[in-house]
Amino acid sequence: MSDSVPIRKLSTGVPGLDEVLGGGIPEFSFNLIAGGPGCGKTTMAHQIAFANASPERRAVYFSIIGEPPIKMLRYQQQYDFFDAAKVGDGTVRFIHLGQQALEGGMGKVLEAIVQEIEKSAPSIVVVDSFRAMVRSTLATGPGGERELSDFMQRLALMLTSYEATTFLIGEYADGEHDSAVFTVADGLIWLSQALDRNSVVRKLQVMKMRGQGQIPGLHTARITGAGYSVFPRLLKPAELIARHPLEHRLSTGVPSLDEMLGGGIPSGYSMLIAGPSGSGKTVLSNQFIVEGASRGENGIVAIFEKRPNDYLQTTPRGQEFEKLVREKRLEVLYLRPLDLSIDETLLEIQNAVKRLGAKRAVIDSLSGLELALAPTFREDFRESLYRMMGALTGLGVTVLATVEMADSYNDLRFSPQGIAFLTDAIIIQRYVELDGQLKRAMAVVKVRSSQHSKDLREYEISSDGGIAVGRALKGFKGLLTGTPSGEDRGGG
To answer: Under a CB-based contact definition with an 8 Å cutoff, are residues 19 and 84 in contact?
Structure first.
């Protein structure tokens, strides 16, 4: 049996898309980029063309019925990927076939495409947008379907024989299907956007890509000044690393708390700090980061409620953080609120982890993250958070996440929406009344596969912006109910 012929894959130049496709676009393949109006089809096609075009591998962009090139380029040149030099020297050529389509239909269009391909021998060919011509052909009657099928077969055969990687751009509503087009296509990329309450969410699905294993399902996408970007749903398994967390523990920066945890946070664990407003969740997370920096462990802090400058000015360790940021030992990530996806958030944090070689990450807070998500993603918050925590700890990062909890003295909960089970360790912070004063108390609820203290201990936020853990609150009953009794006047 002969060895299989390897198929070269072209990078799309679209961040995240190569991974979703299974490694890129197969060379000489015939592909369809489909979706509704405004979902980014033309932008993606331009991005792919400019990423792959060179003097040795030219690209031709045919527009049929739709915007003439001069109008299209007026807007596309605003994107970072646009290279005017490639247009000027003919590396990327734009040809409008509207007149041929009006005068001679598909036959004239195919003839014009053949003439240009024979003349310039491009490696990348884009046909945008052929869908209007398809509709007019099908409207001619029973012969229209045959004409369309013949056109597609001849176009695909001709472009493949000339060794061109081809992209057809088609405007389709959800559920629309042209069998003659979809059958011939080697790859089918479907783009969509949906309005959910006050947010617009873009998504991408690779419905088929012959000869390679794409990542299934819907993937979040975004269009920015850089162009089209995709945020894959799943982390590549190859990036995950084996861990033996109990062999090495990380200090929180609070020696008494390390003791309560059984020696610190096991490396590669995720820990949840749950408590009401003002209980010191951010203070403890800051100590965790500063302690790591003192041990040569770079850190990441992802915030959702304040911009970085505001965060650095108001957080207790702001000056230390600013110094660490300048030294490139810490990154403070502010992720845009209101229309985020978990996948976009995860990618931002992963990229920062790789840039710094970070060993510690703080998410402050999960409550803020949930509010920052587009409404459609909040429905799957637990499942998304599970993937996020698993992906980060799988990279060898120890994650500390804070979550806002209202003090409820008749309902003992460790997190909203039942997310506590997703983390490896939990610390709760509570307010208790002792001697007519409001005191703070904390306890370690769990440390997976490890012994830990069961004590509820008093703590204070010191003047230097750190947490100091004090006595164990022994001799009391009902501390967590809000009505303690049996106070131990002698101390602990």
So the answer is: no
